[in-house]
UniProtKB/TrEMBL annotation:
The UniProt record lists the keyword Glycosyltransferase: yes
GO molecular-function terms, A-Z: pentosyltransferase activity
Pfam families given in the database record: PMT_2 (PF13231)
Protein name as annotated: Glycosyltransferase family 39 protein
Organism listed in the record: Polaribacter pectinis
Membrane topology, from the record: Multi-pass membrane protein
Glycosyltransferase RgtA/B/C/D-like domain residues: 53-213
GO cellular component: plasma membrane
Keywords from the UniProt entry: Cell membrane, Glycosyltransferase, Membrane, Transferase, Transmembrane, Transmembrane helix
TM spans (from-to): 12-34, 74-92, 104-122, 151-183, 195-213, 242-265, 285-305, 311-327, 334-355
UniProt record, GO biological process: lipopolysaccharide biosynthetic process
Annotated compartments: Cell membrane
Length: 492
């Protein structure tokens, strides 16, 4: 309540933040279903202690919201919007511990103006709950360390555990905490405090569901998240495209002004630490401890590994607070202008779909595909549906269709959490199927003209049908190749 009262007093900042959030809320009904929305909705409809590619927090949240408000695209987007709005409010509380009133307002506007907040408000990913619990963890740890309130060691441990139950990168919270205490002369003694160790113990205990699910499933999730990436990094192949791609992504998510401020203060503090072995004051060191490992750590990998645009998001929380210490009124105005222009362009794309997206990572065409698929099933009766693109088409069709839709495990390929839904594929033996394959680079209306060799291994006969062409605003925008497959023979 005190945070809300303080916000109301800061009329200028709250006006800008409410303006951005109102704009995002107005856009929600125009947003179609993203494949990630559908996939994590599938999580929630198949409740489990954890899941193959991520912990389950985003799935639990979507399950709660759809149980309360009903199943709809808007409900899923509204869940993301509400959780992200709570993150914004929590950020304000956290930032108030470090900044004066004027700098606090600037940091608040900086956060609300970013594109990454819009992405979290529109798209269901594990980062949505991760950012909330990350911010709550930092609030608790601040109070435990700087205000010596013992209860917050317990709450901090719980919040860190729930952050891990959202996404594995939350492990950087414990790393940041230990790093801060190690390099802080004043608070290093807390490393010997039983409250510190109780905090870590509680954070581990709160992650028990994730560990137990992995134990039950031969640690499949941990292996998936680590083995492939470790192998790629160990090859150590320099790729400038990865590096410059990461810069482009970060400039888009943060907008150029904020990104350049990040680079400037990172260089300033690290230079001082490395060359003079001079650490900043305790509160600034605290912020850096939860910024540097994530932001600098992932950036260091970009020359040799494709770092996804959302991996650095947790670092933005304390990074923006530090940026609030330095940004001038003039630079803030430029940031807001950039933001308004970018958001207007994004809104035009969302509403009118002006530029076709040559990817399955889009919010258009999925419902239309489901309608056409149901028509196909009316013509080719007693068929099951499956697709081969990890999860996207299968998850989206599962959302819109009453009948179960299968993934690429039908033809023996790994299919993420579809492999762990408990489906007995042997019950489909002898049945016919419709196989759907997205043409991501839609150039013409022709058939594919060839058959996936795996289909021939699992079906007696495969015939290509006319592709499904989806029109958006009267324009042919998406294309799906269709195959009729007979007599399914699953491998033992």
């Amino acid at each position: 309540m005190n945070t809300i009262k303080t916000l109301i007093k800061n009329n200028k900042a709250i006006s800008w933040v409410l303006g951005f959030q109102l704009f995002r809320l107005i856009l929600l009904p125009f947003m179609g279903l993203m494949p990630q929305d559908a996939y994590y909705y599938l999580y929630g409809q198949n409740l489990s202690l954890s899941y193959f590619d991520h912990p389950g927090m985003i799935g639990y949240i979507l399950r709660i919201f759809t149980e309360i408000f009903g199943k709809s695209i808007f409900t899923i987007k509204f869940a993301d919007f509400i959780i992200t709005s709570l993150t914004i409010l929590s950020f304000y509380k956290l930032a108030s511990y470090f900044l004066s009133k004027q700098k606090l307002q600037r940091a608040f506007i900086l956060l609300a103006s970013t594109i990454f907040i819009s992405i979290l408000s529109f798209n269901s990913t594990p980062d949505v709950p991760l950012l909330l619990f990350w911010t709550l963890s930092l609030i608790c740890l601040y109070k435990a360390i700087f205000e010596n309130k013992k209860i917050f060691w317990i709450l901090g441990g719980l919040a860190m555990g729930l952050a891990f139950d959202s996404k594995y990168t939350a492990l950087l919270l414990q790393i940041g905490l230990i790093a801060f205490l190690l390099f802080s002369n004043k608070y290093r003694k807390l490393l010997l405090s039983p409250w510190f160790w109780l905090c870590l113990l509680i954070s581990v205990a709160a992650t028990f569901p994730v560990w137990y699910w992995n134990y039950q499933n031969e640690f499949a999730s941990f292996a998936f998240q680590s083995s492939e990436r470790t192998s790629s990094i160990s090859e150590f192949k320099i790729s400038p495209n990865y590096f410059f791609g990461a810069i482009g992504h970060q400039m888009f998510l943060l907008l150029p002004v904020l990104f350049l401020i990040f680079i400037t203060f990172t260089f300033k503090y690290l230079k001082r630490i490395v060359t003079k072995f001079k650490f900043p004051k305790a509160k600034t060191l605290f912020l850096l401890a939860f910024f540097v490992p994530t932001f600098v750590g992932f950036f260091a990998l970009t020359p040799i590994y494709w770092v996804k645009l959302n991996w650095m998001m947790p670092s933005y929380i304390t990074g923006i607070i530090i940026a609030g210490m330095f940004i001038s009124k003039r630079l803030l105005k430029i940031q807001v202008i950039f933001s308004i222009v970018f958001h207007l362009l994004v809104s035009l794309q969302i509403i009118f779909y002006l530029v076709p997206i040559k990817s399955d990572d889009t919010w258009v065409g999925w419902k239309e595909l489901a309608i056409e698929t149901e028509k196909l099933q009316d013509k080719y009766t007693d068929t099951f549906i499956f697709s081969e693109d990890n999860y996207k088409t299968s998850a989206c069709l599962n959302f819109f269709m009453d009948e179960k839709v299968y993934a690429q495990n039908i033809i023996g390929l790994p299919a993420l959490h579809f492999d762990y839904l408990g489906d007995d594929l042997s019950t489909l033996k002898g049945q016919n199927a419709i196989f759907i394959d997205s043409d991501k680079r839609f150039k013409d209306k022709n058939k594919l003209g060839k058959i996936n060799p795996l289909l021939a291994q699992y079906f007696n006969n495969v015939t290509e049908l006319e592709p499904i062409i989806v029109k958006i605003n009267g324009k042919e925008s998406r294309k799906f190749w269709i195959f009729y497959c007979t007599d399914y023979q699953p491998k033992k």
